[in-house]
Amino acid sequence: MINRQFRRAARPVGLPKSTDWAFGQEPVKAPNEGEVLVKVHCISLDPAMRGWMNEGKSYIPPVALGEVMRAGTAGVVVESKNARFAKGDYVVGIHGVQEYGVSDGRDLIKVDAGKAPLSSYLGGLGMTGLSAYFGLYEIGKPKEGETVLVSGAAGAVGGVVGQLAKISGCRAVGIAGGADKCAYLKELGFDEAIDYKSQDLVSEIKKACPKGVDVFFDNVGGETLDAALSRLAPHARVVICGAISQYNNTTPVKGPSNYLSLLVNRAKMEGFVVFDYRAKYAEAMAVLVAHFSEGKLKIKEHVETGLENFPDVFLKLFRGENFGKLVLKIAD
Amino acid sequence: MINRQFRRAARPVGLPKSTDWAFGQEPVKAPNEGEVLVKVHCISLDPAMRGWMNEGKSYIPPVALGEVMRAGTAGVVVESKNARFAKGDYVVGIHGVQEYGVSDGRDLIKVDAGKAPLSSYLGGLGMTGLSAYFGLYEIGKPKEGETVLVSGAAGAVGGVVGQLAKISGCRAVGIAGGADKCAYLKELGFDEAIDYKSQDLVSEIKKACPKGVDVFFDNVGGETLDAALSRLAPHARVVICGAISQYNNTTPVKGPSNYLSLLVNRAKMEGFVVFDYRAKYAEAMAVLVAHFSEGKLKIKEHVETGLENFPDVFLKLFRGENFGKLVLKIAD
Predict the structure, then answer these.
(1) Quick check: B232 pLDDT over 90?
(2) In this complex, do B271 and A253 lie within 8 Å of one another by their Cβ atoms?
(3) By the CB < 8 Å criterion, does A268 face chain B?
(4) Spatial distance between the Cα atoms of B267 and B229, rounded to a whole number of angstroms
(5) Which end of chain B is more exposed for a tag (fewer CB within 10 A), N or C?
(6) Does the beta-carbon distance from B262 to A268 stay under 8 Å?
């Protein structure tokens, strides 16, 4: 059996180009004692992957040149030498941009493909949903009646954040680009949607958040972060989940000029990394699946197909072309 | 009796000029029932006063044009119609840049002029010391053995922060401008002093904080904040006390480009306002006075004299010309 893969070929400057990747193949590895072989069905494409391509100290090591690109995956166990897993089990893991992966099982989570489509365990019910869940509840700590503002709200994480905020009795306001995405936020139950492409952010945030912003969940950075900082409520919490506007900069990152709003409002800005909450994954996933089953959590996926299309599909994230969690389906 | 005063005359652009002030006089007001009349001995000059001259929403209202400039003061009760105060009591309050003030007593704190010079209750044992105390302990929450980095370390707040960090069993590293100030930091017991005027900040912070920065207490902002962010330890706390490098900007505030270090390090950046801790002032002042009496807390004052010199003396703060807490003495 053949395992086709994308490995890193060059260090990108700005947006990754096709020549930054090497598409190749090798024989499928056989699992050793204690390991399982997983056939990958879906690959999760996430903005954070861009960060893993940069040199330097971060929350996990960068993917070195020559290595298979790291990515979250959902698939099925095709051979098991690990007592915890049986052939036919559906699992999510981090097998990267390839067709087959071998794992000792420590990073694998078994999922119930009967309760939701397999791909949703990469998105709203998987790491994406978990990022929303832990960022909102562990860092943002919203209280009933508070206002939660979310940037990148039509994105995979943002959409879940807004819905969880509503479930928790908060006012949810989303920022997204374009009328379609804003209409989608209303479908998800957001109280207000702000189109950053056609509206003035600061004045729209002021209108949509008349009592100020208690929790700002930021996926975007740049001007969006600055606008939100200008409308913080006292004791606000700014959750730094990402900064997609800045990831492909070839100039320095734009720091938030309005950061002194943290002082004036006795507010805090805090970053988090979802991997730190591993011990609580199962508990949180159960909550997300329950919300989904009850119809309280809607999940939108943007599914593309074909492993060979990875370099191009990945760029959709940075061009704002995906609408919902971006997943690359490579097998059924 | 005559009360000489500085009132606001114009809105400053950048550094306040002498024409931004009006020096005048009026008869001393008599206290009403419940009030006391205080003769001001010393006026506290603080960077935060510059912020109070700007328009717009902040943690306290701006000082309007025509009003006496707000400032912390230490003085003596010369007439009392309030049962809590007697003639001859030494008190600190917020009587502004003038010779006499009337108060209903709610903002006054009685101090013991026998235990420390009256002026020190404006500085290391007063609001300045309290800012250091609450910012460090309530926001920074240093643990024994951690590294506390302080900017503006030779300043009034910074010097106390470093000494409290040492008392709490931490490694204290200070950033200050010039060899004299750095030598002074060593006198105060800082483990390391970094001269931002002659050394490369990022590499010096790296050297002085080999395990990373657990708590960064920032009084400066700008490049200094960025340099510190680049060396955060996991779960670091950045305390935003001020941003003296940015207060007189006529260009936008420089936001911290390295703020995504908060994400990578699961760190937080939080502002605070000392006035929020009013209920704990007495308790904290008792701790500071005890440290002072035991010789564990050294306080440096930069005393200038003469009410009429206020506009010029105030600027020393922004030119880095004061060395220690800046106090304007206007009576003995």
Answers:
(1) yes
(2) no
(3) yes
(4) 10
(5) C
(6) no
